[in-house]
Design goal:
Elements: H1 2-20, E1 35-37, E2 41-49, E3 52-54, E4 57-60, E5 65-72, E6 78-81, E7 86-89, E8 92-97, E9 102-107, E10 120-125
Parallel strand pairs: 2-5, 4-10
Antiparallel strand pairs: 1-2, 2-3, 5-8, 6-7, 9-10
Length: 126
């Protein structure tokens, strides 16, 4: 009887602890990368590989404060968003306010090879 009680308590503890953990995908936007941190900042991580960005489409609300982080997984890339005067070289982060509604292109700002011209994405400010 004591053996079954110990086993039951152990299983209960395992289930309780597993519910406390969470797995966060840093390559998602609010429609698919990041999350809102305390203070209302939208945290977005963009991963660069040869020759694409992930995610290639990011949606935010007009007026959102955005912290965008570039992570190079393959090759050396940059991320430039001309409409918001952002130009990240290699890995790094930048903050901006999404104060211009519409679709804003971003592209690789470091010559990275034959697929460089196709390395684009967009930020949609709703």
């Amino acid at each position: 009887m004591k053996k079954w009680m110990t086993l039951g308590l152990t299983l209960l503890l395992v289930f309780a602890l597993s519910a406390c953990g969470s797995k966060t995908n840093k390559n998602t936007t609010n429609t698919g990368a990041g999350g809102t941190a305390a203070g209302g900042t939208q945290n977005i991580t963009v991963t660069a590989t040869n020759f694409k960005f992930e995610p290639a489409e990011i949606k935010v609300k007009k007026g959102d404060k955005v912290k965008i982080t570039l992570v190079n997984k393959e090759g050396a890339h940059g991320l430039e968003i001309p409409d918001f005067k952002i130009n990240l070289q290699k890995n790094g982060s930048a903050d901006f306010t999404a104060d211009k509604a519409g679709t804003h292109e971003f592209h690789c700002s470091v010559m990275c090879g034959a697929g460089h011209d196709n390395m684009v994405g967009k930020i949609i400010v709703e």
